[in-house]
Design brief:
The structure holds 2 protein chains of 2 kinds.
Chain A: E1 5-7, E2 10-13, E3 19-24, E4 31-37, E5 44-50, E6 53-57, E7 65-68, E8 75-79, E9 88-95, E10 104-105, E11 109-113
Parallel strand pairs in A: 2-11
Antiparallel strand pairs in A: 1-3, 3-8, 4-5, 4-9, 5-6, 7-8, 9-10, 9-11
Chain B: E1 4-7, E2 10-14, E3 19-25, E4 32-37, E5 44-49, E6 55-58, E7 61-65, E8 71-76, E9 85-93, E10 99-102, E11 106-111
Parallel strand pairs in B: 2-11
Antiparallel strand pairs in B: 1-3, 3-8, 4-5, 4-9, 6-7, 7-8, 9-10, 9-11
Classes of the chains: A mainly beta, B mainly beta.
Chain lengths: ~110, ~110
């Protein structure tokens, strides 16, 4: 399967702990996006990369969130000092084109903060 | 700032009835994409519209982009139970212009 893969698929953690999610995009896809989706809501934009450059970050993200894509391939999203409000599905998507092409989504990483 | 409203929020139809969802923007859009998310699933790409007045069809689905590129619609003819899910428009914006933002979504339920 050469689709977008995300790991882990599920994460349960205690409030205050740090968590990290990994996304492996489709090979050779230049753009990589992170979204957060809570139950019954649409995905909210968090950040996106073009190759290794992080081009935009949502104001929704506090300083506890950080994302990297060091070699322009896989990406990580880290949440420090998790809060219950961070519980959500974290979706990663990649795109082949630099001019706003189709997004291919992974299955998501579901975070539950107790 | 850019405002895109997607309506309706919910739509309940009987199988065989038609369904339409709309995305309306306060500013001109460069392009618009439509996605479907099944319950428990992830968004899946349906179509991208780029040109003013563009109309595209996929079997029972018809997508339109307004002449002013400020609104778009997705119309499903003769809904089936397999059409159940949430339909989102996605539009570009942001300071870097690569930010892709979801509309609020329309949740479609189809009663057999």
């Amino acid at each position: 399967d050469t689709g977008v893969s995300q790991d882990p698929r599920h994460k349960i953690t205690k409030r205050g702990q740090n968590v990290t999610f990994r996304c492996d995009p489709i090979s050779e896809h230049n753009r990589l996006y992170w979204y957060r989706q809570t139950l019954g809501q649409g995905p909210e934009f968090l950040t996106y990369f073009q190759n290794e450059a992080q081009l935009e970050k949502s104001r929704l993200l506090s300083d506890r969130f950080s994302a990297e894509r060091p070699k322009g391939s896989f990406s990580t999203l880290e949440i420090q000092r998790t809060e219950q409000g961070d519980s959500a599905m974290y979706l990663c998507a990649s795109s082949r084109r630099n001019d706003l092409g189709e997004l291919f989504f992974g299955e998501g990483s579901r975070l539950t903060v107790l | 700032g850019q405002q895109v409203m997607q309506i309706p929020q919910y739509q309940h139809v009987q199988e065989g009835e038609d369904f339409t969802t709309y995305c309306n923007s306060s500013t001109t859009l460069s392009n618009i994409q439509w996605y479907k998310q099944r319950p428990g699933g992830h968004p899946v790409f349906l179509i991208q519209l780029v040109k003013s007045g563009e109309v595209k069809k996929q079997k029972r689905l018809t997508f339109q982009f307004g002449e002013a590129k400020k609104n778009s619609s997705l119309h499903i003819t003769a809904t089936q139970t397999t059409d159940v899910g949430t339909y989102f428009c996605i539009y570009a914006g942001g300071t870097s212009y690569g930010k892709l933002t979801f509309g609020q979504g329309t949740i479609l339920t189809v009663h057999p």
